[in-house]
Structure formats: C-alpha cells, structure tokens
Amino acid sequence: MDVIVYSIMFFIIGICFGSFFNVVGYRLPNNMSIAFPASHCTNCNHKLGALELIPIFSYLFQGGKCKHCKEKISCFYPIFEFLTGILFVLGYLAYKDIYPEILNIIYALLFISAMVIIMISDIKYMIIPDQVIIFFSIVIIIVKILIQYKLEAINDLMSFGYELLFILMEGLIMFLIMYLIRILGNFLFKKESMGGGDIKMMMLIGFVLGYRLSIVVVFLASFLALPVAIINVYKKNDHMLPFGPFLAISALILFLSKVDFATLLGYLY
C-alpha cells in the first residue's frame, strides 16, 4: 500500500516539475529568466491564473486552447508533464530500496530532471543549454559522493578527493571520446556531424553511468535514432535531427534498469 501511495505522490510531484521543466526548456535557449515574467500565453501575453497552471488537467479542461485568446496550445506541454510524472515514479521504484534511500531517490530524480529538460530544449530549439549541464553536473556529483560514503566518511578529505577525481575522470573520458567522434564525423561527412551540446551532455551522463556504460548509451541512441533518420531522409526533410533526446532516452533506460557493464557483456556470450 505504501508503494502505491508513494508512487501517486511522486507522479503528482513529477507532473508539477514537468510543468516547470517546460518553462526552463523554453526560456533558457531564448536567454530568458526562468522566474520572470510569470507564466503567460506566448500569443496574447495573458498572465495565467492558478486554474490555468494545473499540470495536464488545465490543458484538458481548456480544450487545448488559451482561455483568453483561444489560441491552440501545443500538446507538447502536457505530454512532457505526463512523461516526467511517469519517470519520477520509475525513479522512485528503481531506487527506493537502496540505502540511503532518500539520497538515492534524490539522485535518480536529479538525473531524470536533467534528461527531461535536455529533451525539451533540444526538440524545440536543437540547443542543450550549458546552464543545465553545469548545474546538474555539480549537484549530481555532490549527491553521488554522499551516497558513495553513506554520510560516514565525508571528513576524510583524501578519500573525498579521490572519489571526486574518479567521477570527474569518468565524465572527462566520455567527453574526449565524443569529441573524437565529432572530429571523425566532420572529416567523413564534410560538415558538422554532432553538436557541442551532445558532447557536454555525454560528459554529464558519464558522471552518472561511467564512461563504459555511456559508450553503450551512444550505440543504443544511434540504434533508436536510425529509423527516425531514415524516415527523415525519405520525406526529404532538410531539418536536422536532434540527437539529444535519443541520448537521454537511452541513458534513462540504462539508469532505471540499473544494469551494469559486466552484465551487458555477459549477454554477448
């Protein structure tokens, strides 16, 4: 019963954060403050009231239109609110039994939040904001170290420094691998083959999953993106395909399944 109650609670928290992530994913790429002005209709600038800010339900009750000017609201917003709610529940279920429970759940929700914001921003603008990478990298590394020591050995500065260096190296290795792939891709295709945001995003994923699992993320993301890319080419769509969402989905699959690299290797034999 407790699991059901907590799952509902995390879903509600998730859809509320999903609403906020929509704002962050829209405003940061446009160099806007995430706090001001208050939420408003982008068509008529009508300031949204409390009843217009209820995640998912406001969209449904208003028929997917602005209450003031009747401009159609993209279904993109409730979809990502719902997705964030589901992912928060999955994060809770995946990490609720690992000590220290609260820190592991926070760690999971932080990583999920970073991936959702990146997906929103990259889909809408093909931009992965540096602010998102920097903020979540710092907070996630701190929480990961706290989890590693289970709040017992934080006073040991040498151990703390060693663990910090190890985590940073995992991310840096992934950054360098992605940078080399970009150089090779640019040489082969004679044009930019990968955005800088994708490279920095993989550094963040490297902090969380380690460089070996992060390499698996790249292969899985490429596999997921392939049919979409083929359809894009078939329709002769010149619009470049954002790779960040596929990286985010792949990273979340590995993160929430809690699979390790040794297990993945075992499947190959």
Question: Layout of SSEs?
Answer:
Layout: H1 2-27, H2 57-61, H3 76-95, H4 101-125, H5 130-149, H6 157-189, H7 196-234, H8 244-257, H9 261-267
Describe this entry's structure for a reader.
It is a single chain. The chain has 269 residues and is mainly α. It is 70% helix and 0% strand. It has 9 helices and no strands. Helix 4 runs antiparallel to helix 5 and helix 5 (130-149) crosses helix 7 (196-234). It is globular.
How would you summarize what this structure contains?
This protein has 269 residues and is an all-alpha fold. It is built from nine helices and no strands.
Share in helix: over 70%
What characterizes the major β-sheet? none
Structural class computed from helices and strand pairing: mainly alpha
CA distance, first residue to last residue: 40 Å
The 3D shape can be described as: globular
Q: Tell me the radius of gyration.
A: 20 Å
Unreliable stretches covering 5 or more consecutive residues? none
What's the pLDDT, averaged over the residues?
88
The helix-strand sequence is HHHHHHHHH
Number of helices: 9
Tell me which oligomeric state these chains represent.
single chain
Task: Report the strand count.
Answer: 0
